[in-house]
């Protein structure tokens, strides 16, 4: 029986059929009109959106609000609970960088971070960027942080006030707190300083939201006078720019999801042409960490699928000079690495669990930092300085709040700096975290991390929120979530399915969930649901599935493949119109995404494969479960019309009685609302939907 009663009439999108023929195959799209022809302008100014499209999106918002009206009190309660678990005046542990230590904090009632610094030897805290002040009068604000110059007199900071991820850069005098005249528009959000603090390098986003150019900005000059340093002509590549800890190199990295290429610019000659390290080879990845007289290179070259670490002289880092330092081990995935004067550090994952390894550069001796819980998360922050023996890392599990440690690599002393406070209280002993294995369709074992209260009955009567992502090699950590406690405390089993497409079980786990292996991702998720039911953790009519972005594609796919196994589905900014998007090479992320999904423009095989699972293209007449889709009007990653079209088509075809709901944030993008508490309101809506669908109101 549906949990939704007395619903108003749902909006019905107009049908305006558009034909598209590729490879001799013709598709009909009745809702393509929801894609604004002037979408580039909408990213900058939402008032230019076609009134017919706006009217439809607002009608959907009104319908969603009516359908969820009986949960408004619950949403407020959930919001209060989640807010109550956040220390409102929380502060990070500042990290030393030369004469200062830098960090951030929040104020009670504040939505945005405040960036600060204190003298390294102790003293008064100086606020160098007040996010709440910058957000005044703005519906949306996302800060890109503050990067200080080498002499710590200036800082470059960025902000996006529309949600479109076009960042404006400003330069601030860190002594007076005043911004200089420099204003740089349409950037990627950060700057890499030269060694003297007189100029910096940044990426410029083109009209299709691609970071295609690196510019050199000299302080005091207009943006129009900035020198073009490098232009990437391949629309399928991303690009970024950064500096070294020793301030002697500017790194330009060009990459897609499985190929990288570096160029180096010495800060001793800023007008020189960037020097190519190793030319891009499809499928070959490498990443540089500076180590004084040498580079340490994390790479998968020559068949090192789970990566190895090489070294090469700084003056000649081309591939013929690479020498193996840390060999490849199948099943031991090296995730990232950092170099310091006396130590090399890397974060690796083995058997689904992370650990940090430290190597003495002189003796070659290695030791590891690891923990004993069944499932946990590690984060490696490292250090801002090169000449140090102390690095920083974080640890948490699904029951253990986050802890921040300083670690002395020479003495092996571990110092606990901070434990995440839960002001409303949290007793880890009240909860259980587990890692179980679900058998997928081809015999692969899929890890599933669980959180639930000790008193939760495991007889099939508990509702379950099952989360999944499964793309781009991104692994979902089994980390502490104060928000998830609101579900666990209501008797939910909170589960994370570590499905193929991530790297939880090595690089192979990623490869087996992309391109021709993409359907493994969807089948792994369904297998996780099956296993949870089989083992008594929940029942099919009590499972609410959740995923966002590429995980939203997962939601659309499982809704088509196995709607009977889910009571409800939450799809946040869902990438569901996969085939249409991959056929539109003008969109921001389409060319860079072809290595992940395939190029249906050039390849008939890719076209047919994507068409076989693309959620929008595979909506048919069947009883779909209750669905809540969330969109952002200025989202450059998953454009708003994807979920809008999907919802319109689902509503037309479903043979069931459950509602299909769409909420479009008319003033935000991919990440939703920008403030820390505003985001909680969106989470409260999602959780209220899950609780309502599960019959637990």
Explain what this protein looks like in three dimensions.
The protein is built from 13 helices and 38 strands. It is globular. With 697 residues, it is α+β, with helices and mostly antiparallel strands. Helix 3 packs across helix 13 and helix 7 packs across helix 8. The strands form 9 sheets. It has an 8-stranded mixed sheet, sandwiched between helices. The model has no long low-confidence stretch (mean pLDDT 95). The longest helix has 18 residues. 19% of the residues lie in helices and 33% in strands.
Which helices and strands occur, and which strands form pairs?
Layout: E1 18-22, E2 25-29, H1 39-44, H2 51-67, H3 72-84, E3 95-97, E4 100-105, E5 114-119, E6 126-130, H4 131-135, E7 142-148, E8 154-160, E9 167-173, E10 179-187, E11 192-193, E12 199-205, E13 211-218, E14 227-231, E15 238-243, E16 249-255, E17 260-266, E18 275-276, E19 286-290, E20 294-299, E21 308-313, E22 323-326, E23 332-339, E24 343-350, E25 353-360, E26 366-369, E27 377-382, E28 390-396, E29 403-408, E30 414-419, E31 431-439, E32 445-453, E33 464-468, H5 484-488, E34 493-497, H6 507-511, H7 518-534, E35 543-548, H8 550-561, E36 568-572, H9 578-582, H10 590-597, H11 604-613, E37 626-632, H12 641-653, E38 660-665, H13 676-693
Parallel strand pairs: 33-34, 33-35, 35-36, 36-37, 37-38
Antiparallel strand pairs: 1-2, 3-4, 4-5, 5-6, 7-8, 8-9, 9-10, 11-12, 12-13, 13-14, 15-16, 16-17, 17-18, 19-20, 20-21, 21-22, 23-24, 24-25, 25-26, 27-28, 28-29, 29-30, 31-32, 32-34
């Amino acid at each position: 029986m549906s949990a939704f009663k007395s619903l108003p009439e749902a909006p019905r999108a107009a049908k305006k059929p558009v034909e598209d023929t590729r490879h001799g195959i013709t598709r009909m799209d009745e809702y393509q009109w929801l894609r604004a022809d002037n979408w580039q302008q909408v990213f900058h100014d939402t008032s230019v959106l076609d009134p017919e499209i706006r009217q439809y999106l607002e009608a959907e918002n009104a319908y969603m609000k009516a359908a969820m009206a009986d949960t408004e009190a619950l949403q407020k309660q959930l919001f209060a609970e989640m807010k109550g678990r956040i220390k409102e005046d929380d502060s990070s542990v500042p990290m030393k960088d030369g004469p200062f230590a830098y960090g951030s904090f929040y104020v009670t009632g504040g939505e945005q971070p405040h960036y600060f610094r204190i003298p390294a030897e102790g003293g008064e805290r100086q606020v160098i960027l007040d996010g709440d002040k910058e957000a005044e009068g703005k519906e949306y604000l996302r800060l890109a942080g503050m990067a200080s110059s080498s002499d710590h007199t200036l800082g470059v900071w960025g902000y996006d006030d529309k949600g479109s991820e076009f960042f404006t850069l400003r330069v601030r005098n860190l002594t007076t707190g005043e911004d200089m005249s420099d204003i740089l528009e349409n950037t990627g959000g950060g700057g890499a300083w030269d060694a003297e603090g007189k100029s910096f390098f940044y990426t410029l986003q083109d009209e299709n939201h691609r970071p295609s150019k690196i510019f050199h900005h000299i302080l005091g000059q207009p943006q129009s006078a900035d020198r073009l340093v490098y232009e990437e002509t391949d629309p399928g590549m991303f690009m970024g720019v950064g500096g070294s800890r020793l301030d002697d190199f500017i790194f330009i990295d060009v990459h897609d999801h499985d190929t990288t290429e570096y160029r180096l610019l010495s800060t001793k000659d800023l007008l020189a042409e960037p020097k190519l390290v190793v030319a891009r080879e499809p499928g070959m990845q490498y990443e540089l960490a500076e180590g004084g007289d040498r580079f340490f290179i994390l790479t998968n070259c020559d068949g090192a699928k789970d990566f190895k670490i090489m070294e090469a002289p700084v003056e000649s880092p081309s591939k013929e000079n690479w020498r193996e330092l840390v060999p490849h081990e199948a099943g031991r995935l090296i995730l990232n690495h950092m170099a310091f004067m006396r130590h090399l550090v890397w974060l690796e994952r083995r058997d689904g669990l992370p650990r940090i390894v430290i190597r003495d550069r002189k003796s070659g001796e290695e030791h590891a930092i690891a923990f004993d819980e069944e499932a946990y998360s590690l984060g490696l922050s490292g250090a801002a300085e090169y000449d140090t023996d102390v690095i920083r890392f974080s640890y948490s599990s699904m029951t253990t709040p986050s802890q921040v440690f300083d670690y002395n690599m020479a003495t092996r002393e571990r110092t606990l700096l901070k434990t995440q406070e839960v002001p409303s209280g949290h007793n880890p002993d009240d909860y259980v975290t587990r890692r179980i294995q679900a058998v997928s369709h081809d015999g692969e074992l899929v890890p599933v991390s669980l959180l639930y209260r000790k008193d939760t009955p495991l007889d099939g009567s508990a509702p379950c929120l099952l989360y999944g992502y499964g793309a781009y090699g991104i692994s979902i950590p089994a980390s502490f979530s104060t928000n998830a406690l609101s579900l666990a405390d209501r008797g939910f089993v909170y589960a994370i399915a570590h499905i193929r497409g991530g790297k939880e079980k090595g690089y192979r786990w990623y490869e087996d969930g992309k391109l021709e292996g993409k359907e493994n991702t969807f089948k792994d998720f369904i297998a996780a649901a099956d296993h949870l039911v089989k083992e008594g953790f929940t029942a099919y009519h009590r499972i609410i599935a959740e995923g966002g972005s590429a995980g939203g594609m997962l939601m659309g796919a499982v809704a088509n493949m196995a709607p009977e196994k889910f009571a409800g589905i939450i799809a946040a900014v869902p990438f569901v119109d996969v085939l249409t998007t991959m056929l539109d090479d003008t969109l921001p992320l389409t060319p860079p995404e072809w290595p992940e999904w395939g190029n249906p423009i050039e390849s008939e095989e890719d076209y047919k494969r994507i068409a076989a699972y693309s959620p929008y293209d595979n909506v048919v007449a069947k009883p779909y479960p209750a669905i809540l889709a969330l969109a952002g009007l200025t989202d450059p990653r998953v454009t708003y019309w994807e979920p809008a079209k999907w919802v319109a088509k689902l509503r037309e075809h479903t043979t069931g009685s459950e509602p299909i709901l769409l909420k479009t944030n008319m003033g935000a993008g991919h990440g939703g609302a920008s403030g820390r508490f505003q985001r909680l309101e969106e989470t409260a809506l999602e959780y209220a939907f899950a609780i309502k669908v599960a019959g637990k109101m």
